[in-house]
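Job type: complex structure
Entries:
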Amino acid sequence: MAKGNINVSVENIFPLIKKFLYSDHEIFLRELISNATDATLKLKHLTSIGEASVEYGNPKIEVKIDKEEKKLHIIDQGVGMTAEEVEKYINQIAFSGAEEFLDKYKDSAKDSGIIGHFGLGFYSAFMVAEKVEIITKSYKDEPAAHWVCDGSPEFTLEKADKTERGTEIILHIAEDSTEFLEESKIRELLMKYNKFMPIPIKFGTKEVNDPDFTPKTTKDEDGKETTEPHKQITVDDIINNPDPAWTKQPTELEDEDYKNFYRELYPMQFEEPLFHIHLNVDYPFNLTGILYFPKMTNDLNIQKDKIQLYQNQVFVTDNVEGIVPEFLTMLRGVIDSPDIPLNVSRSYLQADGAVKKISSYITRKVADKLKSLFNNDREDFENKWDDIKVVIEYGMLSEDKFFEKAEAFALYPTVDGKYYTFEELTNAIKAKQTDKDDKMVILYASNKDEQHSYIEAAKAKGYEVLMLDSPIVSHLIQKLETTKENISFARVDGDHIDNLIKKEENAISKLSDEEKTKLDELLKEVVPSEKFMVQLEAMDSNASPFIITQPEFMRRMKEMQATGGGGGMFGMGNMPEMYNLIVNTNSELVGEILNTKTKKKQERLITQSLDLARLSQGLLKGEELTNFIKRSYDMIK
Ligand code: ADP
Ligand code: MG
């Protein structure tokens, strides 16, 4: 038997490991299973190139709990180690890695994923074990070895009588970590980190119906049928799917396979994804994965953190911030790449060249997929538009590259359910909706019911009205106005339709200047000036006499403030509710107001008209509404 000191200058490294990595101590299992997987895949490789003259067979990894003895076993059938290799890989290399690790990353050690990269993987076992044993038999014709270490730098290494190839790691679970002797806890960890690892992982056994057995059905004299019970057999409980969909070629998979995989990823999710994007690249970096577009709601915040990041089928994290462009964090699915450096902070990650390339690759793939969906089945794409527009609009706002690509598939629906691309839209409205200054005015609504009368007024002129109702639409409009030449957006309720798209100078006023002044004075006495800017306009005599509008600019700034960014830079603080009151001087009612003899009656007419205009905008509430109704009844009595 050999005794020795592990080659380490930091005497008390184990307490350090425990302390620094404490918050992540559950990852020990992931590390040990990763090692078992590596050892098995190494053997596979060696047998495939004829280096190892043993049968590869169907190796698995077994995880076993011995609650009585307080032990956890991880057993593989991989390459194993000779005594010499244990000395080299466990005693020396591992610890030089550990030192380096502790030196460099004392502060950021909690960043998971870091451990495996510094050869500290194996030693993470000491976060939960007071003693660790390795019993290992190499595929080479050499005796098995037994290594024991109780957490001090001393270890023992002796011969063992293990005959089958592979490695067994035995953890003597420490007093403060007995949760790792619970079957439910281990199962949970296996499901979290190892659900898609490439070697089958056995955890216990289960009873299933014997596939080779067909239950017989017999009939008695009365014709009653009885079927004998199915024969049960005991099989290994394999907890993982070693061949998840993303590791396959897109050509091998049907639409149904992608849907099944989605269910495997999100068992609690009952809604089907709208479509998927298979990522597959091996140059200049390695990346595979499948992204899914789920149905989106208008709430941008609740839907993030659903993409899972793997490294060679080992789960790393579900926080892909910095790796996937922000607007795509609303998607779901998996990304698997050995090329993402995880041993660095998130801010560094964003500056990393390889990661930038990955991020722009993903953006491009998503744009290409959307484009092909649009081209292959436009109707289907239009039907899905409402469920995906948030992501696309958000992407257009945040990534210029995506904005350019989205030109081909971003849709602008009308209130009548037509869907235009931007180019189609401008072609369709060019003739009618260009104003006297040669500017094309794109009309839109955000709510069909609330803006009904304005929409109708626009349609009566033969104008198209878009239906734009996502939460970030004011930002997007702003972006379109600055990138496209000579267009402007106007919400239908922003002004009278003739003012939104000014065709020629205003109609001739029926009122003389004197009458206008008189009207203006009358209005000022009744209409509260802190709420309304009164504007006299000579319009069509059929147009409404009183119209309340909220100027486009003001409203948009307000909306942008509410969704963050944009408006804030104008330093408006909290803008007051301010509306325009457009009074149509050519309307019959205005003529009547002027001709009415008593002041009291004039005021009544103005109040009533103002209230009607407010009512149509949903601005009449509380006491004012009560008074209005009372007054209206009095009038018709
Ligand atoms: P890493 O996996 O990053 O190399 P670890 O500390 O996890 O670092 O493991 C150190 C080394 O010990 C491995 O590189 C491998 O050579 C050896 N090793 C660990 N576990 C096993 C195992 N189950 N079978 C064979 N070799 C192993
Ligand atoms: Mg390892």
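Summary: The chain has a mean pLDDT of 86. The first helix runs from residue 13 to 20.
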